Amino acid sequence: MVEAIEYEDLTEKVYVRIRELIISGELEPGSKLLQEELSARLGISRTPLLAAFSRLAKEMLVEFVPRRGAFVRKLSKKEILDLFDIRTRLEPLGALGAASAASPKDIEELAESLERFKSAVADSSPHSIRQADFDFHTLIMKLSGNSLLFDLVESHNLVCMANQRGIILKPERSLADHVQIFQSIATRNPRSAEAAMRRHLSAARAAWAATLAND
Predict the structure, then answer these.
(1) Burial class (CB in 10 A: 0-12, 13-18, 19+), 114
(2) Does the pLDDT value for residue 190 go beyond 80?
(3) Quick check: helix, strand or coil at residue 8?
(4) Residue 194 C-beta-side C-alpha neighbours within 13 Å
(5) Which of 4-18, 42-56, 103-117, 165-179 has the highest mean pLDDT?
(6) Global pTM?
(7) Which of 29, 111, 183, 193 has the most CB atoms lying inside 10 A of its own CB?
(8) For the segment 137-171, what is each residue's pLDDT rounded down to a tens digit?
(9) What angle do CA 13, 56, 15 make, to 5 degrees?
(10) What is the rounded distance in angstroms from the CA atom of residue 134 to the CA atom of residue 129?
(11) 181 to 2, 165, 170, 175: CA distances (angstroms)
């Protein structure tokens, strides 16, 4: 029994570490996941590594290519646009739910997340901005109280983040949108929060669609 617990703990740690490497860009989209190299780097056997790959494949972060192995999944620009379509429909529902269900403690947590996004914008670090943006959006889904919605949106946003290296919207525009979304949630205005989130994501989708038009 002890060995099983230790193995499950190791598998979880490997999964988290590989996911971090993908999201940070250290393992780039389209790159092959070299089992021997990763096993040596992490000091593990292939068994927990393959278990982590399988779990990441379910999250669309890894893909298995027959006779070639496992790769960091690389989405096309059209696939990322499709993800924005999904987000634009799902996340307003989460914002509406958060404005209805969030407790005073939840609002404080969201305010802290907003402050971290402000700091990232002030530092002009693309990676920090993307991470803070992901955290802010994911927290809102969590505060909605809808666990299925949270799982869906977190998965889609992780894939976007892993495949996105630049900034889609100007950071100042994103910050202004985040402030509006936060204020609507903090003042318990569900419809306003829903509309603010939809406007924000629609603007991001339009900006990404423009990159397709320019190709």
Answers:
(1) buried
(2) yes
(3) helix
(4) 10
(5) 103-117
(6) 0.84
(7) 193
(8) 999 999 999 999 999 999 888 888 888 767 889 99
(9) 5
(10) 8
(11) 46, 24, 17, 10
**Both tokens assigned to 170:** 């100007």
Q: How far apart are CA 204 and CA 92, in angstroms?
A: 14
To the nearest 5 percent, what fractions of the chain are helix, strand and coil? 75, 5, 20
**Rounded distance between C-alpha atoms, residue 110 and residue 186, angstroms:** 9
Report the chain's C-alpha Rg in angstroms: 19
SS3 of 101-135: the string is: HCCHHHHHHHHHHHHHHHHHHHHCCHHHHHHHHHH
What the block records as the tokens of 203 is: 């603007």
Average pLDDT score, the chain? 91
**Distances in whole angstroms, Cα of residue 210 to Cα of each of 100, 158, 166:** 34, 22, 14
